[in-house]
Amino acid sequence: MSRRLSLYLTDIINSIEKIQNYTANLTYENLCEDDKTLDAVVHNLLIIGEATKQIPNSVRIKYSQIEWKQIAGLRDVIAHSYFSINSKLVWDIIQTKLDPLQSCIQQILETENLENY
Fold this sequence. Notes:
GO terms for molecular function: hydrolase activity; nucleotide binding; RNA nuclease activity. Pfam families: HepT-like. Keywords: Hydrolase, Nuclease, Nucleotide-binding, Phosphoprotein, Toxin-antitoxin system. InterPro entries: HepT-like (IPR008201), HepT-like_sf (IPR037038), HepT_RNase_toxin (IPR051813). The structure is a single chain. By secondary structure, the chain is an all-alpha fold. The protein has one domain. Helix content is 74%, strand content 0%. The chain contains 6 helices and no strands. The protein has helices at 5-23, 28-33, 35-52, 57-62, 68-80, 87-111. Helix 3 (35-52) crosses helix 5. The longest helix has 25 residues, at 87-111.
């Protein structure tokens, strides 16, 4: 069963918000020491990547400022090479990538006619 685009976009927003809540007031060292939080963050990055893979090419092209391929690629690394997840990369994503992604996804949700998807 296929889902609507708006649901995938909402999944991305929800996962970003969860990561932000989990990591609020944490340092990199705190994150590395807290296996449960790190696992929760990685799980939500996996969800973001999987939802990203469902975004149609027409939307990806229109919003080319989003690193669609890299987000989907991270999902593949988490799913297939889970034993080599780089916590510094995860921290960098939390610190530098989630806010801009959230803004762009929110813009898509607010401005696009998603009825055709």
